[in-house]
TrEMBL record:
PANTHER family reported in the protein's UniProt record: OS03G0856100 PROTEIN (PTHR47447), PENTACOTRIPEPTIDE-REPEAT REGION OF PRORP DOMAIN-CONTAINING PROTEIN (PTHR47447:SF28)
Biological classification of the source: Eukaryota, Viridiplantae, Streptophyta, Embryophyta, Tracheophyta
PROSITE patterns: PPR (PS51375)
NCBIfam families recorded: PPR
Protein name, as recorded: Pentatricopeptide repeat-containing protein
InterPro entries in alphabetical order: PPR_rpt, TPR-like_helical_dom_sf
UniProt keyword terms in alphabetical order: Repeat
Organism: Saponaria officinalis
Segments annotated as PPR repeats: 167-201, 272-306, 307-341, 342-376, 377-411, 412-446, 447-481
Record family assignment: Belongs to the PPR family. P subfamily.
Highest rank taxon of the organism: Eukaryota
Amino acid sequence: MNFVARFGSRVLLRPLCCFRFVSRAFCNHSSCRDSDDNSSSSSSCRDGFGHIERLIRESFQLSDFDRTMEVDNDDENKNSCDFSSKKLFETTCRNADRLFNILRQDGPGFNVKSALDESNIRISGLVVRQVLLKILKIIDYENRTVCARLAYKFFVWSSDQEFYRHTVNTYHLLMKIFVAAEEFKAMWRVVDEMTEKGYPTTARTFNILICCCREVGLQRTLVEKFVRTKTFNYRPFKHSYNAILLCLLNVNQHRLVEWVYQQMLSDGHSPDVLTFNILICAQYRLGKLDNVHRLLDEMGKSGFSPDCHTYNILLHILGKGHRPLAALHLLNHMREEGVHPSSLHFTTLIDGLSRYGDMDACKYFFDEMTKNDVKPDVVCYTVLINGYIAAGDLEKAQRLFDDMIVDGQLPNVFTYNSMIRGLCMAEKFDEACCMLKEMENKGCTPNFLVYSNLISNLRMAGKLSEAHEIMKDMIEKGQYVHRISRFKTYRK
């Protein structure tokens, strides 16, 4: 168990002291919403790699912990994966569209309740979710107060329907709509109603509420309330503090993590490996590298050895700090300890090194993967491709793109986005447009990031007619119509 103390000084202490912490705002007001607007919150997310940071943050979460903590993708086609029957999905979407269109007609002289009743649509949790998501999606582009009112009308109407009862997730969606509309009093009334009706408050409830509390005092009061409430469903953790600490890390309330940890100790609870992993992550993001070393020491003295998630966090630190030699030592030590590095471990390291621009080191560790019988997945390939694109080496990116297909890994929307961006940077606009068609033909639906990337580059190159055609095609397919205003010069 003394390994952690030795590890702190031997591998991390000296290399890490020369690190420079670069803070990156992962959480903003939009993080409380089911939208791909998060993709625009940072440069990394604009490149399509916000999911790498999310993987790193989530890598040490338990698999069955409140799946609703995850931010929904704005890509509606993702939802089809949730249903075993394509027909059910299509029917749900069709019914949701009808109800949504009825709500949009609300106004003087139009009885929206009667119109909803006359639709004769049988309400289910899936239909309600789709309608509320549609409202949440447009709220930044239309009158927010009107959107909040329509959402509440639909929420009340659907609650009166036979054989239907709202779920906790439905309450959460309504809360997020009120947050987006800045109707905070209404949001708190929804919280009160939810608890009065016996629904448990979950990590997702806490996540939404903490994003609304901008003052430190209010945040601490909220934490204290959740720790002591009997309705807080903090399972599968042994106590509520770990659940809250994980939520705070997910919404980047790193300073509050420190305070909650001290409250946890004062309350007589002992930290476990998960607690230390969260604390190490938070301290690193605050730039307090000395505290990272201290926590590693405390971890060992408490009788805990690093788990695979601890190692992943440390590889993240070493990669972003450009410490390839220290990372190599760590990987070797993992094997000595019986922890075999996975694709995620290598991907985390390669991602950090590629951000630094050291593509030689990235290629070295990529080759190390295959030498050690670790199969690169689509995320790993995409990270490396993006690194080559950022370095201006389209040829190597294209070669790797071809290799991944031969290797049986299908490119995802982020892979295509990187390649399209690289082709545009090389002024190969015809090939970029062909790649857009290729991804559609292969069943990979472009997200707004892909369209925005290609259209913006075409316009900057003076290819206005080509950009217009892509926008027109996007609209005809019903994709991201609510966001067309972002292309200011577009004319139908």
